[in-house]
Amino acid sequence: MNRLVDATSPYLLQHADNPVDWWPWSDDAFAEAKRRDVPVLISVGYAACHWCHVMAHESFENAQVGALMNDNFVSIKVDREERPDVDAVYMTATQAMTGQGGWPMTVFATPDGTPFFCGTYFPRPNFVQLLQSVATAWREQREAVLGQGAAVVEAIGGAQAVGGPTAPLDAPLLDAAATKLASEYDATNGGFGGAPKFPPHMNLLFLLRHHQRTGDPGSLEITRHTAEAMARGGIYDQLAGGFARYSVDAHWTVPHFEKMLYDNALLLRVYTQLWRLTGDPLARRVARDTARFLADELHRPGQGFASALDADTEGVEGLTYAWTPAQLVEALGEEDGRLAADLFTVTTDGTFEHGMSVLKLARDVDDAAPEVRARWQQVVGRLLAARDTRPQPALDDKVVAAWNGLAITAIAEFQQVAAVYASPQDEDANLMDGVTIVADGAMRQAAEHLATVHLVDGRLRRVSRDGKVGEPAGVLEDYGCVAEAFCALHQLTGEGRWLTLAGDLLDTALAHFAAPGGAFYDTADDAERLVARPADPTDNATPSGRSALIAGLVAYSALTGETRYREAAEAALGTVAPIVGKHPRFTGYAAMVGEALLSGPYEIAVVTDDPAGDPLVTAARRHAPPGAVVVAGRPDQPGVPLLADRPLVDGRSAAYVCRGFVCQRPVTSVEDLVAELG
Q1: Helix 429-449 to helix 476-493 angle, to the nearest 10 degrees?
Q2: pLDDT at position 1 over 70
Q3: Angle at 467 between CA 464 and CA 468, to 5 degrees
Q4: Per-residue pLDDT at 5
Q5: Cβ atoms 670, 619 nearer than 8 A
Q6: Are strands 602-607 and 654-659 parallel, antiparallel or unpaired?
Q7: DSSP 8-state assignment for residue 641
Q8: Coil, strand or helix: which one is 399?
Q9: DSSP state at residue 468
């Protein structure tokens, strides 16, 4: 019997026809293991995971392997994106036992959930041998198995402990973090470290804010160079926009082809802020096309943003994306085919597998002559049309609350910067206008979906699919990312509803996730009890729950003037500060928020009858210091605290600038406003 057919997770549905008697994560599964007196096999992965697919094809679709699993275990399939709490606990156990982690994750546990043997991917012969060995050990060496489980639980309990040392996240500590990042910077290829190389989006967001505060040219150059290297590499889709999960090499050439919502949301923020601060045309183009990718490829009409595009197409990595010179000629003709091969570094030897190449941009085209750019865009359009006739990767269409929050925040920032630089004279002004209109609609639909579908009885749910909310409760990162998104939407729209919703989420988080000493747990106090209560303070693929909540608290405090939220943010940031100086690559989001607090953050209110076109609004958004909040609208606009009791000055628009709740006199000229923000 397979119990996955009614799952909301596309990953679980991928396994619904396996010969394995899978259970979803549930009390019933553990009760069944206890009744049968057999171990539990917990298999954790996600829909876009290449090696998850490989292990499924090799083992879980094999009748003999399925029979061995069914006879000796209760097997539970878990979508790590749907249950990040379960994933966090058992990943900590896997790392404690093996020194490394990853997906697919394979965990053997007692009927009470205590892990006693952990691993990741196993080829079928090894997996069969492992199944037989664990089954034998459970029958014949039970005491040793239970003893090992107790040791693992003790180890993960220590790893997830709260109440450790705290310190203020001050300027010397943030300066030290930037210096350490610079020492780990790959000056040749951009980014940090070697292969595999992941987009360091949160570190770049921190470095951009650090540059704003300090004027440090090195922080800006690291960001600019890394952003350019990624945008010209194979990790970036040169035809349709959007970034793959990571590069298997150190120079961004060959990606692991899955495209994740969270990566693209965070990278959209990087390129948007780089564009805002420098006016760089490459950053502008990549921000625009990443926003278009989110709106066109991942947004589900009337819902939110889907989680990911798969790494594989029909079981083959790169089938959709890789090219040979002959295929370029077939799609474009002889002359343009040769041009495309030269421009996109497609060679007869290939940069990928079987003589295929992943498209890379060999040289900068953003500063080229208009006729060169026009021909390049024509080639891109024709290649994309040809690629669209190929088999396409599957879509993981579940909507994850936290990741949708990241996307809403990113698009809100993009919309503001696009308005700052809007010019009818731009050669692609119509394209930019089209992207901003479509992205704005997708962002608003996603926010409505979170507010009306994911909010159930005042509590967030983690996932939904096809408009139906799932059962898993929201974790801390959901509350933090969605609250930050609603604060960003409040700034963009001037609608008080979003600020009210943000405050409700933050109040719930403060009430149900708080831990001793200013820290936070990742699960609520009334959530399902696991073998350990996760409380990871580090930023990894996404902001930690703690960092995300801190960002929401800081923004909300600045928008409302309510200091208790800032105090909670400062206390929580103090629990992360000891890690920031030592391991800045894993605390980028926390350091980014630390820069905002050190800067003020500034609170900028522009009272105006024309919030869309007033030059004061444009100047405020163009020159906003790190982490500043900006609102614009009529005096005393309902639901907008920063506009309360702030009148026009002599009938003219005025900007009111405060910093850390201390305000300057209102100004009515762009020059005076820029001076106050300088």
Answers
A1: 130
A2: no
A3: 60
A4: 87
A5: yes
A6: antiparallel
A7: G
A8: strand
A9: E
